[in-house]
From TrEMBL:
Family annotation (InterPro entries): Glyco_hydro/deAcase_b/a-brl, NODB_dom, Polysacc_deacetylase_ArnD
Name of the protein: Peptidoglycan-N-acetylmuramic acid deacetylase
GO terms assigned for molecular function: hydrolase activity, acting on carbon-nitrogen (but not peptide) bonds
Organism of this sequence: Clostridium uliginosum
Region called Disordered, residue ranges: 23-92
UniProt keyword Lyase, yes or no: no
Domain NodB homology residues, every copy: 129-317
Length: 324
């Protein structure tokens, strides 16, 4: 009898220990005994990681930025940071050659995204009271020295977009290169405004397009103490997707404008008082302001205009300080 009871106890102990029964959980998932982690019955050895997504909430200010790695990535990335060098396409047949006027951009989201894609700017940091002051220099008309005097007196640095004829020309027997040297010495940026000041979408051939920019760059760099900065202002404010692509491929940023007015007709200069009123009325935060240096009106009102802007709380920054 004792032997029978002992045998029954042994059998009962074996059954309670689960001996000879498949090792399963109640939720029907297999258990990896080496890790004690559950693995679902339909899982594989692959653990795909979602591709990083770029922040498109501010397409302009974030143009050219590199997306941050996704937080789910466990391994530290060993890849080198993305270069600012533009992507070079082997097929440009899909890039439109249709001319676009800058004024249309304010109502065109597609065009704004186009500028973002090719590192182009129509305005800077719109969250702050900042002005980026720029001057176009197609030729010298005797007012640049006065403009430089005013900028120096007010401790403001600007960008001067020059054409090749400006670089190689002279005014009243004085070479314009002396003004270029002064711009550089006084901390201003020298930008590119093309050789012939023609609408850039008309140059569909890449070699011809490049010459419009590189010849100005070479001319400036040949002036002692001067160096061309990689900013290009398209003449007439017109562009195409192809022209933006060509410009970026050369390492340049296309610079348009937030504010400009009809100041370029030297034979019909606007009234100084009404011009100043118009400029102040249309001033916007983060604006890139375009003024023509050939304008007598601009030379006349610049000092009081800068002082009024400062009194309104605006500060001046250069294109080197544009949002990246």
């Amino acid at each position: 009898m004792i032997k029978k009871k002992l045998a029954l106890c042994i059998i009962l102990a074996l059954l309670l220990s689960g001996c000879g029964v498949a090792n399963k959980n109640e939720d029907n998932t297999k258990v990896d005994p080496s890790s004690n982690e559950k693995i679902t019955s339909d899982s594989t050895n692959e653990n795909p990681i979602e591709e990083p997504k770029s922040d498109k909430s501010d397409s302009i200010s974030k143009a050219g930025s590199t997306p941050k790695p996704d937080s789910t990535t466990k391994e530290k990335s060993t890849s080198t940071p993305k270069s600012s060098t533009p992507k070079v396409s082997s097929d440009i047949s899909s890039l439109s050659t249709k001319p676009i006027e800058w004024s249309w951009l304010y109502s065109s989201r597609d065009s704004a995204e186009l500028l973002s894609k090719y590192k182009a700017y129509g305005f800077g940091d719109t969250s702050k009271k900042i002005i980026y002051l720029t001057f176009d220099e197609g030729y010298e008309n005797g007012y640049t020295a006065s403009i430089l005097d005013t900028l120096k007196a007010n401790n403001v640095h600007a960008t001067f977009f020059v054409t090749k004829p400006y670089v190689t020309g002279s005014f009243n027997g004085v070479s314009d290169t002396e003004l270029l040297k002064r711009m550089s010495n006084e901390g201003h940026i020298i930008g590119n405004h093309s050789v012939h000041h023609k609408s850039m979408p008309t140059f569909t051939d890449e070699a011809a397009f490049n010459a419009e920019i590189t010849q100005v760059e070479d001319a400036v760099n040949n002036v002692s103490g001067c160096k061309m900065s990689k900013y290009f202002r398209p003449p007439e404010g017109t562009f195409s997707e192809l022209s933006l692509y060509y410009t970026q491929k050369l390492g340049y940023k296309s610079i348009f404008f937030t504010l400009a007015y009809k100041d370029y007709d030297v034979d019909n200069q606007p009234d100084p008082g009404s011009s100043k009123t118009q400029l102040l009325k249309n001033t916007r935060d983060g604006m890139i302001c375009l003024l023509h240096a050939v304008s007598k009106t601009n030379a006349t009102i610049l000092d009081s205009l800068i002082k009024d802007w400062k009194n309104q709380g605006y500060e001046f920054k250069t294109l080197d300080e544009l949002p990246s």
